[in-house]
Design brief:
With about 210 residues, this protein is of the alpha/beta class. Helix content is about 50%, strand content about 10%. It has two domains: about 5-125, Rossmann fold; about 145-210. It has helices spanning about 15-25, 50-60, 75-90, 110-145, 160-175, 180-185, 190-200, 200-210; strands at about 5-10, 30-35, 65, 95, 100-105. Strand 4 and strand 5 (about 100-105) form a beta hairpin. The longest helix has about 40 residues, at about 110-145.
């Protein structure tokens, strides 16, 4: 039986190594890492990504697929749900690094199956809603910035660095520290940490706007 960690990396500040390291730090024993870089999770199905397609060829009954979160498994609600169900039909176990969720097709009890499928649907819907909200916020921010004068286009210079953003996200994902502890660890104000956690895409956009 093989455990494969799959990552989707769509921005320059994300790294495959960082995501795999997080998984191992959470206790996952990884045999192989597959990752698609520079791929939009909103517009590309898992089966249409080079390494995502390989998952369907490699995974067999009894194998385990580890992902950071269910949004890595598809571009929208339907795609994510279909992907998870397809792997479960094959006897593959799906596990997430965040919250350590486990999905498999082992149960035959109809009530347990209903609860499992409802949870999968909820998580997939939440992932799509978050992705769409982030995309809409980015579009609105860009449109507003373009409407402003060049002098105010970039807005206020960020008080954080790219490294600090990565550290905040990593610590928040681990779930072992509260906001105040994370702020002290990375050397930022508590409110800045809160904003990064609530909207990491906006933090990334601020850094990119200033070329940081």
């Amino acid at each position: 039986m093989t455990t494969i960690f799959y990552a989707r990396v769509s921005t320059a500040d994300q790294t495959i190594q960082h995501q795999a390291q997080q998984a191992r730090a959470e206790g996952f024993e990884i045999d192989e890492v597959l990752a698609d870089e520079g791929v939009s999770g909103v517009s590309t199905k898992l089966a249409e990504r080079p390494q995502g397609k390989r998952l369907f060829d490699l995974l067999r009954k009894g194998d385990t697929l580890v992902v950071r979160w269910v949004d890595r498994l598809g571009r929208n609600y339907i795609d994510v749900v279909d992907t998870i169900r397809e792997f479960m039909r094959r006897g593959v176990v799906i596990r997430t690094v965040i919250n350590k969720m486990t999905f498999d097709g082992a149960t035959t009890d109809p009530m347990q199956m209903a609860v499992r499928d409802a949870l999968i649907g909820f998580m997939a819907a939440t992932a799509q809603a978050q992705a769409e909200a982030t995309k809409d916020a980015q579009k609105a921010g860009i449109a507003h910035a373009k409407a402003e004068s060049p002098a105010t286009y970039r807005g206020r210079k960020p008080t954080f660095t790219r490294k600090q953003v990565q550290e905040v996200i990593a610590l928040a994902d681990q779930g072992t520290m509260n906001t105040s502890q994370i702020a002290r660890t990375v050397g930022l104000e508590r409110m800045a940490v809160t904003r990064i956690i609530l909207n990491p895409a906006n933090a990334e956009q601020q850094l990119a706007t200033w070329g940081l």
